[in-house]
Every structure is written in structure tokens, then in C-alpha cells.
Amino acid sequence: MGETMVVLCPAPGEPLEHAEQVGVAVGGAESNVAGYLARLGHRAAWVSRVGDDPFGRAVVRHVATAGVRVDLVTVDPAAPTGLYVKDPGPDATAVHYYRAGSAASRLEAGVLADPRLAGARVLHLSGITPALSASCRALVEHAVTDRPLPGALVSFDVNHRARLWSADRAAPVLRDLADRSDLVFVGQDEAYALWGTADPAAVRRLLPGPQTVVVKDGAVGATALHRDAEPVFVPTPRVTVVEPVGAGDAFAAGYLAGLLRDLDPVRRLRLGHLVAAQALGSSGDNAPVPPWAWFDRLLAAPVDAWSALDLTGAQVEV
């Protein structure tokens, strides 16, 4: 559940100010996760709100093309679909948002009362949504506190967006929402910027509530800290990086797919890394994924083979 927007993208590596043409794409953290889960063979639905405009129709069509249910998306005739623009640079890609007053910012708690959501196993949210408006913050608070989807695991990606709210404003809100969730994803650098935590153990101490906290440390690896078990660390394989935007969503989807398939903690983290590798090697926010046979082979690799895994330049049939 969350906002998805139209994305305007110059050619890879071309600064926005010099671009004479841009491509039109679609991107949103939560729908990215839904799209990857659908491609990995799971049933996924996206709950959101779009404007009654061409951008809104493009967004819904794009998400549906990934195999995600979109019948729970509301069309708002009085507010526009959000927009963001990528600006590639030599060291990183900057993102400029045009989403104030968007249709998705008018989401309210009632959207999770829809009977078509009954039986959902996972509700995935992110820290982007509470930054959009007071009603969106109330919706996420309702989701993690009142649990309107009985039996559903609540997954929360901290996903702090500094352009939406400062770290000082966001830190207490995101900590509270994360601590009331069941599964939390957070980047180590993000956790340090928000809460001053220096390592995964410090993040876990700050968030004692969730059953599992997954701390991602870029090219180093990811650590899953479980409430009743020892931490599990899996290093990141070497990969080709074309565009980092969307890799965190891909990681979350891979981990969730592993959880839904009842994989052990190591394989959940490995699957997160492998799906993230597909996103990193693509210029789009939602990349194709290989067949399960490819994943199965690497998920079963011995520890030493995994530690030496190099996916740079790998040609994978998708």
C-alpha cells in the first residue's frame, strides 16, 4: 500500500538540464515490491489512489502489467497523480518530486477495510507514506497498531525520504511505526542518519518490538536480527550497478518471497540479494527476474561459493 508515480527519465548518464528528451516510466516503492513478488510467483495486490488523468491510467496499467491486482486502486477526480523526475549524475542519481497534494496523499484508513483484502498474508508498507499527509500518517499508524488485516504479517520498509521530511522530524515517527511492525527493513546508513545507530545490533536494541529487523549495508551485506535467535549475516554478491534506485524494494520483495516460501533465514537474505541484483543491473525501477531454477541453484550454494559469487556481467535468461 502506497503511492506510485509517473517517472520522467533522461537517457542513462545524461544530466537532466541537458536532456532534450525524456522517457516516461512508472515507479513507487510499494508497487515495486508487489511487482517483484508477482514476478516471483506470488499473488499481490496494490492498494493506492491515483488521479483521473493520463498519468494515473498509465500507472495503473503499468502495475497491472507486472501481474499485480489493481482493482483496489481508487481514482480521485479532484487530485492529480504524483510525478518525479530523475537527474543522473556522475556519482549518483538525484530525484525531484512533484507530488504535493497528489491523489495518493488523500489515502485514508478506510482503504484497508475492503473485504477483498481478507486472507492477505503480508501487508507491506513504507516510511514514505506517513510523510505524504496527515491522513496518510494516520493510515499507516492504523495499519501497524489496529491490524485491520487479521493474520497478516506487517512488513515496514523505513525508506526515509529526506526531500519529504527532515531526519529530525522523521526519526521519532519512523522509529515508532517500525517498532510496531512485525518485519522491518532499514539501511545501515539510513538508520545512522535517523537514529545515530552505528551497527545492526544497535538498530535491534532501538527496535525491540518486531519479530525480525533486517539491516542492509549496501555492497557489504545484510543482517537479519530475530527476536529469539542469533543474528544472520549474508554478504552481498558482486554485481553490475546500472541504477541503484529500486534495489531496496527488490531486496524486500526477495526476502518476503523467501518468507512466504518458508525458506530458512540465510536463503531469505540470499534471495533478497539476488532480486536486488536484477534491479541494480537495470535502468528501470522494476526489472525482469530469472526463472526459479537460477535462484534455486544459487540459494543452495555452499557458504564459500556464495561468498565468492560474482554476478558482474552475468548473462541470465529472464
From TrEMBL:
It comes from the Bacteria. Keywords: Kinase, Transferase. InterPro entries: Carb_kinase_PfkB-like (IPR052700), PfkB_dom (IPR011611), Ribokinase-like (IPR029056). Residues 13-290 form the Carbohydrate kinase PfkB domain. Coiled coil: none annotated. One of its GO terms (molecular function) is kinase activity. PANTHER family: 2-DEHYDRO-3-DEOXYGLUCONOKINASE_2-DEHYDRO-3-DEOXYGALACTONOKINASE, SUGAR KINASE. Belongs to the carbohydrate kinase PfkB family. This is Sugar kinase. It comes from Micromonospora vulcania.
